Amino acid sequence: MNAFEIRGLTVQYQPGITPLKNLDLDVPNGQFLCVLGPSGQGKSTLLRCLAGLLVPTEGVIRAQGKPVEGPDASRGMVFQQDAIPGWLRVRDNVALGSRSTDEQVAHFIRAVGLEGREKDWPRQLSGGMRKRVAIAAVFANDPDILLMDEPFSSLDHLTRTGLHETVLQLWEETGKTIVFVTHDVDEAITLADRIVIVGRGGVRADVPVTFPRPRGENLRMDVDANLLRAALLESLK
Ligand SMILES: Nc1ncnc2c1ncn2[C@@H]1O[C@H](COP(=O)(O)OP(=O)(O)OP(=O)(O)O)[C@@H](O)[C@H]1O
């Protein structure tokens, strides 16, 4: 079964503003899919539809075979502007609404590198650490699918690289499906099994990414990776 089956997805906000038009896409279970696209071409709109936060004008989305009719605990979300509750300590933030046991919560806190900070308040953490709390919390909630909308775009390069490693480790460990929106070609090449470019209403390009992991710096000098980067940048124009 596919994590998502999207058929004829159209979103018209108002006459003349139709970021998605008749878009079709299947996302297999367990895939790490990155959605790339020029600014304003409907990436966040697509993700909001997948989350069930936005009702499409036309079309159908099925998640694990069932029509998406609203938000659901089986689909976890991490957004760029994620504000974690400031009145909950790290541990309670990660456990919030969670289906995990104490032991599992402790495991996810360790996995994101926040062991020893369980009793800290969010205001005592850096922006990157707060993002780590949000990542631990979404995995602790144990959804089938994670939807991430430019979650790391406000962070500096080093912090972002560390978070990429963490998310990839957790993804490999848990086998979740991830749909990750980014406008950053290098971020997509580092993370994805597959990259789709959304533009002019539909899927403009759909490419598998098969470089062995870990990638990141290893790919800087790789000829094939540079060819892919150039091709993606060209499609984004
Ligand atoms: N609630 C809304 N009402 C009206 N128009 C909207 C609304 N949300 C988004 N839009 C418009 O729909 C288009 C697609 O927006 P969307 O946020 O999906 O693009 P994006 O690809 O995620 O862009 P970015 O990379 O800049 O975040 C844009 O023209 C945007 O102005």
UniProtKB/TrEMBL annotation:
The keyword Transcription does not apply. Residues 4-225 form the ABC transporter domain. InterPro entries: AAA+_ATPase, ABC_transporter-like_ATP-bd, ABC_transporter-like_CS, ABC_transporter_ATP-bind, P-loop_NTPase. Keywords: ATP-binding, Nucleotide-binding, Transport. GO terms for molecular function: ATP binding; ATP hydrolysis activity. SMART domains: AAA (SM00382). Pfam families: ABC_tran (PF00005). This is ABC transporter ATP-binding protein.
